[in-house]
Design goal:
Blueprint lengths: L1 H26 L13 H9 L3 E19 L1 H16 L7 H14 L1 H4 E22 L5 E4 L8 H12 L1 H13 L8 H18 L1 E13 L11 E4 L1 E5 L9 E4 L22 E6 L2 H4 L6 H4 L3 E12 L5 E5 L11 E3 L5 E10 L5 E10 H10 L8 H14 L3 H14 L6 H13 L9 H33 L5 E2 L6 E2 L114 H17 L6
Antiparallel strand pairs: 1-2, 1-4, 2-3, 3-7, 4-5, 6-7, 8-9, 8-11, 9-10, 10-13, 11-12, 12-13, 14-15
Helix pairs in contact: 1-15, 3-4, 4-8, 7-8, 12-13, 13-14
């Protein structure tokens, strides 16, 4: 039996250990998704940060007024004389197209010497502007971008309008001049030379009237997805710094916004030389080309490159030099550390002698300057619940826990219906579940329930073990046996073998016996027989049975008591009168008086039994010692 108990305990302990380990494993924090070797850092950063990165638009609209160009005849005649001398000297070809090309180049170099503005003025409505990148820094609509993304100097504005609004006038003026040249077949070089004269003249004498400026952010409509449903949402300029090489920072506010996705700010010390930086934004080579769809234009790009050095401009402004590629349109975009925190904002790239941007180097305004400017306006960057839930969903998604990710993505869609990417993640999660690719762990409550069940089983096992042990101890102590010889219950002697001694088996040493005093309840039985009176001491030999003394051949006395003990007893407990025998040392073997025969009616009342026991105790206390 002891082996069975040990096996039971060991089995229950092992089950408990397994259940508790399972619960601990299920309730332990899930490993970060960036620990997954199959998912790159750039992929995770793009997924987490792109929802907060928005395309911004700066637009100027107005009327462009341009005067008509009139030739200064005296200056033109002087130029023709000079050309003739050069032809005679053989310095320019003598054919007419070559001479006209030379003439237009000389006029374009100094248009005000050869052309004069005159009436009538010509007017055209025009809209010009540019695209940049911005990013949400608070859930209620504050956005950070570059200063040069929200302002243009007068010179920059004139050049932009001249390039985008005056093309029609420039082409018309050049065509009119060329048509006046007799017997000349104009080639592309001649047309370009004539147009350059009027490009320079119209730009120099252009006027802007009724000019209006607007800032906006392109957001998607409800339903998710940055696509052709995107619309321009007006933005208010809250703060602006100085354009590069100054503190190139601007703060926008879009009203009536809530639960916007945001990105967290880090510290300058988060990165140092040699670390990889990640730039997110909208390159102009995509947004300004007609070859890509609107969906493609409105999807941010992420590039990466090493942190090269920390620089300081002549104005004392710090900048980070990096080899992460950037282009026109990336200006104002956030730059991230490996941990996904903003460590700066892209401002400028190197420019070649011809004015072309170079991919080799980019310059980033440190996050310390961004924090400084935000503090000036008492703006506190904060994460939205949308961002928190979205990042949790992404962690589950990249861990292939699609069933866990799906409700989180749906919560994000509820929090921010205009979220540009959550709709696609919902679709992808549903498809993965349908295709049997889900690897979500069992819910924690299930493991807790299993653990609780095992613990309950363990508790029940220990209760069962305790019960079995109690029963074992109880069964080890012999209970009184009751004979039913005459329809009554007769208790056996209350004694223990280790309390008795071996008595001599001769008549002279047999103990003297005496009867207990009998109370009224013991004077008569239900059959009317009288009990033996006090003082009757039979002289039979101890431990022997004789038919003459009232025993039959089977060892039963006349009252039906079995006097054959299994080796435990060394003397008889009762004489022929049913009285207890006395041991040689004077100790007396006591028995409860034989109860009356069981009544034919209901069982004896418990109270009667208690009274009988109490009477027996009283009489035992009043007993007299045996005679010497």
């Amino acid at each position: 039996m002891n082996g069975y108990f040990r096996t039971l305990i060991r089995g229950l302990a092992a089950s408990a250990a397994i259940a508790l380990l399972a619960v601990a494993a299920a309730t332990a924090p899930a490993a970060a998704a960036d620990g997954d070797e199959n998912v790159s850092v750039g992929t995770l950063l793009a997924a987490q940060t792109h929802p907060a990165v928005q395309l911004t638009s700066l637009t100027f609209a107005g009327e462009v007024v341009v005067p008509t160009a009139d030739v200064r005849q005296s200056a033109l005649n002087e130029l023709v004389s000079q050309i003739q001398v050069l032809v005679a000297a053989g310095k320019i070809p003598s054919d007419e197209p070559s001479m006209y090309k030379y003439m237009f180049k000389r006029m374009a170099a100094d248009v005000n010497k050869y052309l004069v503005p005159t009436a009538p003025n010509r007017t055209v409505e025009a809209r010009v502007g540019g695209m940049c990148t911005g990013w949400w820094v608070t859930p209620d609509g504050y956005m950070v971008t570059g200063a040069h993304c929200v302002e243009m100097s007068d010179e920059e504005l004139s050049q932009t309008f001249a390039q985008q609004a005056l093309q029609k006038f420039n082409e018309e003026d050049a065509k009119e001049v060329i048509s006046g040249l007799e017997n000349v077949v104009a080639d592309e070089e001649l047309v370009a030379a004539a147009q350059q004269v009027y490009i320079n003249f119209n730009s120099a004498h252009m006027k802007l009237e009724n000019l209006q400026k607007s800032l906006s952010v392109l957001q998607s409509l409800p339903g998710g997805g940055v696509d052709k449903t995107a619309k321009e949402v007006p933005a208010e300029l809250v703060s602006v710094g100085e354009s590069y090489p100054g503190k190139d920072f601007a703060l926008l506010k879009v009203n009536n916004q809530q639960n916007l996705p945001t990105v967290p700010l880090g510290d300058d010390a988060d990165v140092q030389t040699g670390n990889t930086l990640y730039i997110s934004g909208f390159p102009g080579l995509v947004t300004n080309t007609p070859f890509f769809s609107i969906e493609s234009k409105l999807d941010p790009a992420m590039t990466e490159g090493p942190y090269n050095a920390r620089r300081t401009t002549t104005e004392g402004v710090p900048y980070i030099q990096t080899q992460a590629p950037s282009y026109h349109g990336n200006s104002g975009g956030p730059v991230f550390s490996r941990e996904g925190k903003v460590i700066g904002m892209l401002i400028a790239g190197t420019v070649s002698d011809g004015g072309e941007a170079s991919e080799n180097e980019s310059f980033v305004l440190p996050v310390s300057i961004i924090k400084e400017k935000l503090n000036e306006k008492n703006i506190k960057p904060s994460a939205s619940l949308t961002t928190t839930r979205y990042n949790e969903a992404l962690d589950a998604f990249f861990a292939k826990h699609y069933k866990d990710a799906l409700p989180l993505f749906r919560e994000v869609q509820t929090l921010h219906p205009n979220h540009p990417y959550v709709a696609k993640y919902i679709t992808d999660s549903q498809q993965a579940i349908s295709n049997g690719k889900d690897e979500s762990p069992q819910p924690i409550w299930l493991w807790i329930a299993i653990g609780a069940g095992v613990l309950i089983l363990i508790g029940g096992g220990f209760v069962l073990l305790a019960t079995l042990r109690r029963r074992k101890r109880t069964s080890a102590t012999p209970a009184p046996s009751y004979d039913r010889a005459h329809g009554g219950a007769y208790p056996a002697a209350i004694s223990r073998q280790d309390e008795r001694q071996a008595w001599p088996q001769t008549p002279q040493h047999a103990p003297q016996r005496y009867a207990l005093p009998q109370g009224p309840s013991a004077q008569s039985s239900s059959s009317g027989q009288s009990a033996p009176s006090q003082g009757q001491y039979p002289q039979q030999q101890y431990g022997r049975q004789h038919n003459q003394q009232g025993y039959d051949q089977r060892g039963y006395d006349q009252r039906g008591y079995d006097q054959r003990e299994s080796g435990r007893r060394q003397y008889d407990q009762y004489d022929q009168y049913g009285q207890p025998n006395q041991a040689p040392d004077g100790a007396t073997q006591y028995v409860r008086p034989a109860p009356q025969a069981a009544p034919q009616g209901p069982e004896r009342n418990v109270a009667d039994l208690e009274r009988e026991v109490e009477e027996l105790r009283r009489r035992l206390g009043q007993r007299q010692p045996p005679d010497a």
